[in-house]
Specification:
This protein is an all-alpha fold and 148 residues long. 78% of the residues lie in helices and 0% in strands. The protein has one domain.
Length: 148
C-alpha cells in the first residue's frame, strides 16, 4: 500500500519536476539573448538539470521515511504519520526556499530566473506531498473506521 504513495509523492513528482525544468530551459533558451564568454545558455542546462536531478534524488531518499507508516503506532496517529512520511521531505524543500528567499521575493528587476528555477523545483513536491498525504490519511481513516 505504501509503495503506491511513495511512487506518487516521490517518483511521479520528480518526473513532473524534471519535465518542467526541461520545458523551462527550452523556453528560456529560445527567448534569451544572453551572451557570455563563459556561461552560455546551452552550458547552463546541464548544470541546472543536474541540480534538479540531485534535488529529486534527495527528496526521493527523504520520502523513504513514508515506509515508517507500516508501524500501526505511527500510522494511526496523524501527527506521527505526517512527520514520518511528509514533513521530513518538505523540510528539505523549506530549506531550499529559505536559502533562496532573496531571489524569490526581490521583484525590483522582475522575476529572476533563479527564482523560477527554485519554484519549479519546489512547488511540484509541495503539491504532490500534500495531495498524497491527504489521500493516505483518508485511506487510513477509512480502514480504522471499518475495523470498528
Amino acid at each position: 500500500m505504501l509503495a503506491k504513495y511513495y511512487r506518487r509523492a516521490a517518483l511521479t513528482t520528480s518526473l513532473i519536476t524534471l519535465g518542467c525544468n526541461l520545458v523551462y530551459f527550452l523556453i528560456d533558451a529560445s527567448l534569451s539573448h544572453y551572451k557570455s564568454e563563459w556561461l552560455t545558455t546551452g552550458s547552463m542546462f546541464p548544470i541546472m538539470f543536474l541540480m534538479a536531478l540531485a534535488n529529486a534524488v534527495i527528496v526521493g531518499v527523504l520520502k523513504l521515511s513514508i515506509f515508517l507508516n507500516h508501524y500501526p503506532a505511527i500510522r494511526n496517529v496523524s501527527a506521527l504519520s505526517a512527520l514520518a512520511g511528509f514533513v521530513i521531505p518538505l523540510a528539505w524543500i523549506g530549506l531550499i526556499l529559505s536559502k533562496s528567499r532573496y531571489e524569490l521575493f526581490n521583484f525590483a528587476e522582475g522575476v529572476d530566473s533563479v527564482g523560477i528555477f527554485v519554484m519549479l523545483n519546489a512547488i511540484p513536491y509541495i503539491i504532490g506531498s500534500t495531495w498524497t498525504f491527504i489521500q493516505f490519511r483518508r485511506k487510513v481513516e477509512m480502514s480504522l473506521v471499518s475495523q470498528l
